[in-house]
């Protein structure tokens, strides 16, 4: 009922105005006609100005808003990956005691925030766009404006993963820099390829062209697979192998002296995890994390210290898994864009001149060119 709320309000006010005026003058018909003419005059002036003199189209604003949010999410994704690999730390603000909260001037936060908060604005612009006549590049009757909001929703679904990645940077427990360097190349490549896909999609939405390649996700999928392989190879860095449960291994049918089956116990694998713990200076203000400070008289290899060591290693696994989850969500975004491009009849991409193969001219063509 939102599109009809304003019309009902005008009708109700007009009815009250005509009723009160007609009661005093006794001329209901003349009052109603004059009121109707004033409304028609105002509508004609508004339409003339908005269409002919200074057009303001909600459809154009919706198109620009959706296309702009792609670059913001791409910038935030690159900022999250680069900040995590460089061990970027946020200073604790005294007024924000419990968590590290992002500030408004943080470029990583402001990038995905616009995409997350654009839902209400997109719905409002959609309500006006569906009533507008065909204009500009949108000359198609019943233009699929709802698909624009569908693309925006798929982009927000991806931006939630970027928000979670930013939360890993703001978390209290951080992975040591030595562990991050092991996965540095793979994490960086996934971030770069993911941002490249977002920027390419944003450019195609802006120019209203179809995808130049059907395999737009091939590179980012390959990068994510390489990251997953590296995680499988270096999984011992993400867990505490000292606490692995020892599983007995039966040694055939040999019997012990007391009649019980003989069993050999596997030795836990050598702990190759990084021994150095990365303790931020800002952790000193945390009553829990301050117990693991090097200046604390507690034994370094205490149970609580090993617990924190395991949690810090798992934080790296969390960041990597969230990055892979972001790559998985890109497929929904590509599907939503392809549906929009088909329904809106986006133009085909222009082939670059360098890629167009031209055959050398024949003898007759050369003679014709010579004599003009």
UniProtKB/TrEMBL annotation:
Subcellular localization(s) per the UniProt record: Membrane
Coiled coil regions in record: none
GO biological process, one term: monoatomic ion transmembrane transport
Membrane topology reported for the UniProt record: Multi-pass membrane protein
Protein origin, superkingdom: Eukaryota
Region annotation Disordered: where it falls in the sequence: 251-273
InterPro entries assigned to the protein according to its UniProt record, in alphabetical order: ALMT
GO cellular component terms listed in the entry, alphabetical order: membrane
Spans through the membrane: 6-24, 36-57
Keywords: Ion channel, Ion transport, Membrane, Transmembrane, Transmembrane helix, Transport
UniProt cross-references to Pfam families, sorted A to Z: ALMT
Stated family: Belongs to the aromatic acid exporter (TC 2.A.85) family.
Designated name of the protein: Aluminum-activated malate transporter
Organism in which the protein naturally occurs: Miscanthus lutarioriparius
Lineage: Eukaryota, Viridiplantae, Streptophyta, Embryophyta, Tracheophyta
